[in-house]
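Can you give me the bound-state structure? Components:
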Amino acid sequence: MTDISSNTPGQGARVASSLLTEDKRTKKRNAAEKRFKAYGIAAIAVGLFFLAALLFAIISNGTRAFTQTFVTLDIELLEEKLDKNGNRDIEEIKKVSTFGYSPLLDAAVTKMVTDSGVETPITKAKDLKQLLSSGAAGDLRAFVVANPDRIGDTVEFRIAASSRVDGYLKGRVTRESLARDKNLSPEHLDIVDALKEQGVVKKSFNWDFILGADASDSRPEQAGMGVAMLGSFFMMLVVLALSLPIGVATSIYLEEFAPQNWFTDLIEVNISNLAAVPSIVFGILGLAVFIQFAHLPQSAPLVGGLVLTLMTLPTIIISTRASLKSVPPSIRDAALGVGASKMQAVFHHVLPLAMPGILTGTIIGLAQALGETAPLLLIGMVGFIASNYPEGVMDGFVSPNSAMPAQIYEWAKRADPAFYERAWGGIIILLVFLITMNIIAIFLRRRFERRW
Amino acid sequence: MDDLRSVERIVSDDEKTKISAKNVQVYYGDTHAIRDVDVEIADKTVTAFIGPSGCGKSTFLRCLNRMNDTIDICRVEGDIRIDGEDIYDKRVDPVQLRAKVGMVFQKPNPFPKSIYDNVAYGPRIHGLAHSKAELDEIVEKSLRRGAIWNEVKDRLDAPGTGLSGGQQQRLCIARAVATEPEVLLMDEPCSALDPIATAQVEELIDELRQSYSVVIVTHSMQQAARVSQRTAFFHLGNLVEFGETGQIFTNPTDERTESYISGRIG
Amino acid sequence: MDDLRSVERIVSDDEKTKISAKNVQVYYGDTHAIRDVDVEIADKTVTAFIGPSGCGKSTFLRCLNRMNDTIDICRVEGDIRIDGEDIYDKRVDPVQLRAKVGMVFQKPNPFPKSIYDNVAYGPRIHGLAHSKAELDEIVEKSLRRGAIWNEVKDRLDAPGTGLSGGQQQRLCIARAVATEPEVLLMDEPCSALDPIATAQVEELIDELRQSYSVVIVTHSMQQAARVSQRTAFFHLGNLVEFGETGQIFTNPTDERTESYISGRIG
Amino acid sequence: MPVFWIVCAVLAIGVIGYGLCRSKAMKSAGGNARNLHSLPSYYGANAFLFSVVAPLALLFAWLIFVPILIDRSIGATIPEDRIAEGSSLGLMMADVSRVSNGLNLAVSEGAMTEEESRSIRTEFTDVRERLASVGVALGSNVDATILQAAQKHRAASDRSRLFMSIAVIALSLAGLALAMSRTKADFRARNTVEAAVKVMLIAAASVAILTTLGIVLSLLFNTIEFFRIWPATDFFFNTTWSPSFGDTGSELGLAPLLWGTFYISIVALAVAVPVGLFAAIYLAEYASPKVRAFAKPLLEILAGIPTIVYGLFALLTVGPLLVSFFGDGGTFGVEWMRGGTAVMTAGLVMGVMLIPFVSSLSDDIINAVPQAMRDGSLGIGATKSETIRQVVLPAALPGIVGAILLAASRAIGETMIVVMGAGAAAKLSLNPFEAMTTVTAKIVSQLTGDSDFASPQALVAFALGMSLFVITLALNVLALYIVRRYREQYD
Amino acid sequence: RDQVQVAGSSTVLPYASIVAEAFGENFDFPTPVVESGGSSAGLKRFCEGVGENTIDVANASRKIREKEIKACAEAGVTDIIEVRIGYDGIVFASDIDGNTFEFTPSDWFNALSPKVLVDGAMVDNPNKTWADVNADFPAQALAAYIPGTKHGTREVFEEKVLAVGCEATGALEAMVAGGMSEDDAEDACIAVRTDGVSNDIDGDYTETLARIESNKDGIGVFGLAFYENNTDKLQVATMSGVVPTTESISTGEYPVSRPLYFYVKKAHIGVIPGLKEYAEFFISDEVAGPDGPLSAYGLVADPALADTQSAISAEETMASGS
Ligand SMILES: Nc1ncnc2c1ncn2[C@@H]1O[C@H](COP(=O)(O)OP(=O)(O)OP(=O)(O)O)[C@@H](O)[C@H]1O
Ligand SMILES: Nc1ncnc2c1ncn2[C@@H]1O[C@H](COP(=O)(O)OP(=O)(O)OP(=O)(O)O)[C@@H](O)[C@H]1O
Ligand SMILES: [Mg+2]
Ligand SMILES: [Mg+2]
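Here's the bound-state model for the whole set.
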């Protein structure tokens, strides 16, 4: 140890190489290593790039849906139109249909335009009214029915502008395109410009889009996502409450308890196969079993949830089984060795260790369920449905409702471009909903992650 | 070898048989790992299994509390009785059996939980403690018996997997004794322990022998001689010789035993 | 202890330092597991690390080939050089380092592959064999050196995880020597081995010493005395004493060493 | 008693039983749990199960089967000659039970007194109108036979309700008593409870089987119907798919759809598997915890973006981009691509969607491989990538195959991306730049189309579904075999 | 169940939902639920039987078929009221900035048929640009986006455009002369080429629009209502010299249109609250008339609306009505 400099005879066959210089083989291997790592980074980059591109598309197309142009309008609720007998009998007031409210609106719009002092070739009140949403009369009627004592007063209303006017303020609609449009003419826009100047027409944040209900094709400006969101919410409650326990229980049985024989093999293959069954087939099943056989109500989130549960189960089962398999047997041995029963070993030790995979399966399965429309088509949740808020929790499960993706598909199909904008806006809401839903799972998953 | 000590511990004749195994065969798939083994393990004694690596000691040990059930390809035949009851009987609940017959595995396998939970797990599922304080007491006592209390008393919340090899081994011993089994099977419990810790574990074994029976697999002839009253020598899946420890070490009847013992170096 | 043998193997003065560690500190999170350790490991010698369980032997051993890098919470400070090169230098490739400094882990960890593939894995990735026949030869030679060839020669295709504890340990030794490292770190390589297998492994170590240096962690004082030329005694993370094996065992300077060695039983 | 309250009562009995048996067990063990066979809570849980499971099962069975029995017995009292022309006993019974339920509702809403409900006669009251006023839908006017039957039906149902309440609660109490009597120190409560849990696990597992059965059954009848009017050989061996709207001129060959399905899925997997797998490897093995904590959930968003967005992305961005590369006068000077819609377009975009299916699950599984495996490999001088490829991945194989299967399944089941990205034309071609379509897309379009629902053009959807089911089943068998074969069990 | 349940054609859906919304606003009955899913699926569910768990109204973009009526009857749905609500105009439109077209059915036949008549013989369609089809047209590449075979619109397109064109060009005659049977020749007339010129669209008009956006040469088939809401992106082609508008279609001048229907279960009338009111409201003059919201949205009002109104108030079923 003292004489380091002295040359030791009989040096080993290997020439001691320096650690600081790489030999050829190491160089090659390190290059492979670098490449391998680069592939990984590239893979993530590819994924994130596409995510960014998609999110960019969604956000740039969708944010406009969150604002809406409104017109502030003084409307005189003429007694002779709304309550001819003047006795404020609600039954009689109700007899006046929305068509009966049109004259009030006509008058109000004409007054508004005259007050604004714009010169316009449009003279007919019917044409001027095209500035407003065609749902205006309905809003008016609902107000009157709710407040019959206001009949005779002049009430200030904030009414959604029609989709073209809204589009104009958002830059979606141009004067040139309106020239060919039979819904609105460029002359209308002069009025809009003037009214905007005066603050009568204003763009503001559109809570109704987030909280409101669907509207028909003729009034895109009133369509909202709120009710469909509740539909999705109740469906997800059902899916989560059923698919997670059933999926995990199934996996535990198959992975830990089932005897190894052809029958369990059959079940195993069968479950993977269920994952490949097109989702619309689950709709066929749901229609036959839940509606026609079990007589559950049509278009109900409960049924939707049940169908989606069946659809999500394979995803959760496959991922749960995979992660149960990956728990080392020594953990089971250790538990059994201190006298735990198999059930205890599984529930106390194996399951917590498999939790990350289970949660991943849940995240992916729920994402899939949340975005699925095809099976809903057959059990009656796609179309013009989400128009009433459910009256209570039970009602939320059984009263007809739609779901967010169904609403989005429905909007994307509609003719008016304003709906297209809303479809993208709906996608933003859907994603926010999804992320909120996942955050808990993601946090839980991080807590359960460990290496051993 | 210290013959005096061995002689000192020779067991009395009136002992009771705790475990009796007759004609045990174990197969791993097609391999016949244990052949025709007959052993009687007496109550309140320490029995040592010795033999070259791979001869089937662990396999046989695992038969005694049916841990082999967990290996798919493993098949056990023959008759193994504890207190006269066939443990492979259909009516026997392997869980109850394992609560009665505790085990320390050859490879330490702590749960990926805190040290405290590792030890407390058994008492919890067997309902041995009524209160947190009682459980704390059991945990402390077990860790002390496992000769590891001093090292971990300040880090009971640290994960059991973050311990050193020998510490893990002692943790597993502590975990096994915490459930107070009637029979304790220990597969090379001191393999990773330093002499002092080994001595403490041996003391524990001696203490346990007062009320329970202990089966220990060891590669150290000295250890076998020190702690056991009976010794079984396995070779290539056969039980070659089984008898009083003193006699086996001083006067083996089978020449394989003889040569194994005399060829010893450790 | 057989003093003669120890003396016989006393190293010559003109030895070269293979590994030198200076002022090494290791932390697991906040725990200071190794403190101020200075060690010089000579080429072509066997160095034994002894010390009570949990004193930091494995931790220090894992510093020498940077296996501690894989533990997130582990932090190593100080200066460790192999052949004068700082192994914690940024330019050093830990892969090359580990090819040079092989390791046998305390817990046997065979790959979930066939026995053959377990051993062939290292030579394959290092390109040590040019043909299947050559590879077969390396595998056979390594398994023979690991003293396990006879037991597994008929089941080379069986999974390495289906071996007995001691067999797995020897398989891991065979796997480590198959890559012909310049330094071999062995963490309790004989803990699960019977005396005969132990002797064979010790022979292997002796043989390896002819060309490489070997560091071995052991709890058996006898083994340390038998195979090593130098011995380091660790206690509570400190290197208490380091010197010629004979001197450490016969004439320790530190009283902790003294009491550890004299308190020995195994 | 309403069902809700019966359930509550039973649950209450169960909870009481839990407490009683738990304390009885403790008492029988002299206050020392050590003398018990199982933990005290198991005795409690056992009592709970005893007093809850069987009664609820009885309740359930009663609710399902007794009404059928009642229907049958009431139906038998309706004379054959009273069944109207063109109607059937079944339809009449539907009316009867609707009237009966309507009477119930009317009574509970106060539109009718109990007395009245029993005594009304069609001659004096317009029952239909009165029921409609409480919102009960009736198919036709109520005639005397139906009304009488309905009144009988109602009485029988009431009686059955009463008996049911008594029976269920009695059974619950009996269960409790039995559990109490069996609660002794040496009673194997844990085994009983665990057996019950196991039964629940099996029940859960059978949901999957029942689902399959349901799917097969719901497809089967219509498939048979289809093959009755369409030759099977033509369906399986014809290589053209061109359904026409009318009665003639349709060609319904499975082959081009199947080919499109596999072609598109393979392209999608060719994107998703390498990208997903490398992403998983990077996340599990290289990335810092921070990167991992962000990147993984971010990638998972890809799975949650509605497929319509992917469809539009394919149609508006990826398709034209590909055309500008491979189309007429494109960058590569080849003329492989004629329109934006192509197998490639849909496959690429679908691949992006499937990335998280592969990456997230694989990441979890790779992460679960014990560190000792990696240490063993690194310790002999393997690089990280060698370790991953040769040790970690083989050990994680079953999980990774599961993840890939999941992705493949999703690829097979996807419609929107296919419709928008690959088009609707069925073609047998090797050129990946040609438009093709998949079985699933056609199932959806034939099912939601405008054609006659009894025509082969609509029924073929079921046959397509069935064929796809059988084919994927075969593929899954193959996958299972591969996993079994190459699985490496660590530890 | 207290609301009317409607399902069926997605072409009728927009009209039905406009009506349902207005119905919900003006009546105390809850807003009817209108599902989409196609005429076939809607009628199938309609014919599943009588009772609360079946739908009350099926929307269809075609007339119910004999076989379907039979299937209905087998399930106990015997009394069906048929209501024709108006016509759906089918238009040909292309990108707003592109060339303007004036088509005749013959142009479409020559553009899309796999075999066309050239110099008296049927040959594989050689046309690559619109100029090849008709010398008056610009040399724009042929790219047609026509509804997939699942759409009812496709049937109309085949019958009123391709078949007409086939006859007009003399191809039909030539095929029959060439030894084909009448039926086969008619089938051959409505076939479309499969070499990528003609693209089936299984999605909706939005998809057709997107296709035209990504391929500016494309010409697509749209519903009149869809076109009218997207005049900023599309320009419409005339057919046989007629510009498609609600007026020109209702007078029958513009040839390509189809009737839209809904079917009501008579057994549910008076039982499901609001069912009859809904049906009456749907075809009232205020709603479905030429000045009503449906017409404003693009429905071609039925000139014979008054007959339908009286038929509904009399609850005339198909058997008794026709
Ligand atoms: N991964 C880890 N995380 C935290 N602490 C650790 C970890 N590994 C070891 N330690 C602690 O560091 C100390 C030294 O451990 P080390 O494994 O080096 O001991 P050792 O000398 O090898 O003991 P043994 O002889 O029991 O194997 C011990 O106190 C141990 O608890
Ligand atoms: N899971 C298994 N699958 C297949 N063979 C096995 C398995 N476990 C053990 N064996 C084989 O059975 C024989 C006995 O193994 P066992 O583990 O009982 O040996 P042991 O006596 O405990 O040895 P050691 O002292 O090395 O631990 C050995 O040949 C071993 O290879
Ligand atoms: Mg062993
Ligand atoms: Mg160690």
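A couple of observations. The first strand of chain B starts at residue 17 and ends at 28. Confidence is low (pLDDT under 50) at residues 1-12 of chain B.
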